[in-house]
Amino acid sequence: MKLPVVYVDNHVLVVDKPAGMLSQEDRTKDEDVLSIAKQWVKIEYEKPGAVYLGLVHRLDRPASGLMVLARTSKSAARLSEQFKNRTVTKTYLALVEGAPVKGDVYEDWLQKWDETVRVVDANKKGAKLAKLTILDVRKIGNYSLVRIELATGRAHQIRVQLAARKFPIVGDFRYGSRTHHPGKNLALHAGMLRIEHPTKKETMVFTSEVPDAWPAEAREYASQMLSKS
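The chain above was modelled as a monomer; its predicted structure follows.
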């Protein structure tokens, strides 16, 4: 299985999505998290029929990191409610061009436009508020490793909000990066996820190290940042 399992019980499956893998099947029919995870559950638990897994959130294909899947419809509803109500804590690590400022809070209104997302005026039809906080910054040569906490979960949010301030994520040519990242992916990683277990009501915290494709110095400091999460 090309999808590392971080945690599993009768209600929840947490996996570490590789960069370049789809969250859910699309027209390309390329490998996707949901299909692979269903196959893993089917084999691991010797399920004779169809396997249920609920997709309660997504990661962009070129990004990597933690995803939680629901193993029952009840868990799916409860986890989806957490994401909707923004009670889930999501911390990302990104290697960016330039030097963001630690402690800055970004608030923008975003609108999807074809395959991209752009910053628009608040009164623009269809605009949605996006908010994030720069928790930590470590300068690495001409780049910066940043730890980010999301307050909202808009499509391409981190990518667009950083790029709007001239800090594009390494490898994100769609939003202005001039730097290649291995595999045509992004140096963007969902490194920490905090949820409430859908049935036990206990707080659960999961962490994931950045991929080996990242520069060694970035991996070292990323590990230190994750320890603060």
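The first strand starts at residue 5 and ends at 8.
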